[in-house]
Amino acid sequence: MAYNGGTIKSASMNGVKLYSISGQHRSSASWLNPKKQRSLRKDLDYQQRVELIQDLRFETATTKIKVTPDGEFVIASGIYPPQFKVYELRELSLKFERHLISEIIDFEVLSDDYSKLAFLCADRSICLHAKYGSHHKLRIPRMGRDMTYDAWSCDLICAASSPDLYRINLSQGRFLSPLATQSPALNVVSRSKVHGLVACGGEDGAVECFDMRTRSSIGRINAVSAVGEDDQ
């Protein structure tokens, strides 16, 4: 079974999908003057072009890919060995790569670009990196599963195999009192960019939300309960 979607083709063989990208459209030369480059915005072939990032690969697998808030860089983590790579979108090429001791479970971009990064690793460690390299390393009490960053309070929030959400304040450089949940362990955590609420999902199928201004739970919903049952 094959599907042709413009310049991207996918084929399924024994349940494994293979993707093939072909450059059917023209690419613009980097030495074109700005006026000519602006005129290409109305060119249909130029608008539908496919550009590939060079060397975007890992030896075994890619685990996470994120774009920096300024839209200038792509950060990808993968195995094996455990490492992450930073790509510059303007050049469509690799800017640098670094190796870590343990596999990266998740990471957060703490600044507008790649200058401040936090990596949650499989050995319960959190590695903080800066432009010049590794900055600091610490460990959380339980195995981490997910992580998010609250830019308003500078809190790095970690979900782990524990009923508590661990909080690390990067401004003060210390652990703060954790946020206690009613779940036996947590799988995911996320923060809303609209209202700043932090939501976590537990092993028991419950979703619990916290207001970071009061550091308290404001609601809990059993997401896997049968239809018609009362929410908790």
Structure description:
The chain has a 4-stranded antiparallel β-sheet with strand order 4-5-6-7, with no helix packed on it. The chain has a 4-stranded antiparallel β-sheet with strand order 8-9-10-11, with no helix packed on it. The protein is globular, with a radius of gyration of 22 Å. The chain has helices at about 35-40, 45; strands spanning about 1-5, 10-15, 15-20, 60-65, 75-80, 85-90, 95-100, 105-110, 115-120, 125-130, 135-140, 145-150, 155-160, 165-170, 175-180, 185-190, 200, 205-210, 215-220. Helices cover about 5% and strands about 50% of the residues. It is mainly β.
Helix content: under 10%
Estimate the mean pLDDT confidence.
Answer: 78
- Count helical runs: 2
Q: SSE string, helix = H, strand = E? A: EEEHHEEEEEEEEEEEEEEEE
Given as residue ranges, the uncertain stretches (5+ residues, pLDDT < 50) are 1-6
Give me the Rg, rounded: 22 Å
Query: Count of DSSP E strands?
Result: 19
Strand order of the largest sheet: 4-5-6-7
What's the story with the biggest beta sheet?
A: 4 strands, antiparallel
Straight-line distance between termini: 46 Å
% residues in beta strands: over 45%
Shape: globular
Q: Structural class given helices, strands, pairing? A: mainly beta
TL;DR of this structure?
The chain is mainly beta and 232 residues long. The chain has helices at 34-39, 44-47, and strands at 2-5, 8-13, 16-21, 61-67, 73-79, 83-88, 93-99, 104-109, 116-121, 125-130, 133-139, 144-150, 155-160, 164-169, 174-180, 186-191, 198-202, 206-211, 216-222.
